[in-house]
Amino acid sequence: GLTALPAGAVRAPLSSPAGPPARCVCYGLGRFAACPAARDQLAFLLLLLEELRVPPARCALFDPVFSGREAAALEALGLRLLPENEEGKHGVEDSATLFYMVHCGKALYNNLLWSNWSPAALSKLVIIGNSFRGIEERLLSRILERDYSYIAKVLKGTEEVALPSHPRYLDTFNDTSVHWFPLDKLQELSPEVWNFVEEPTYQDCEDLEIIRKQDRAAAQS
Q: What is the value of pTM for the model shown?
């Protein structure tokens, strides 16, 4: 079944000048012990790693909802768990990195872009996640620019290809695209775009779909 969603669909953007990803970060996979869609997303991630020849040890995952058993299962598959909630703020340093973030909240994509806000870093990112075009179509531009300004600013520098739909996996991968950021497109954006690098705060957001570090700490105390 899952191979019908060809991992090859992500091969084109991954042969970008930055080279194929040397590592992978996965956020928001969900409770795969209980949720069939999350299991399918995990299976597709494993197929992708195989296709891209990324060793499981170079794939790190985080989801605040993972149970102890789920964490142990991921480690048994050879994958790594990130020790803490980065809120998506993960810098790529120098290696091309695939971010596997299916159905994550907009703030998580926005934080990731902010953490890599330069043409050099963004050109090393590939993001598999909610369609940026879809986000742009569904949100008032005023809200997009106010709350998710890094998504708004990067749209003109983004290449996006929808994952091919498959009747069996409509809910699992609906609205999911592969996004990459070609260096030449990023360099065409105006210099002002790169000058503003304030960390996102989300004070006015009503439906913030992200579990933040402080929310988690408050819930546990």
A: 0.90
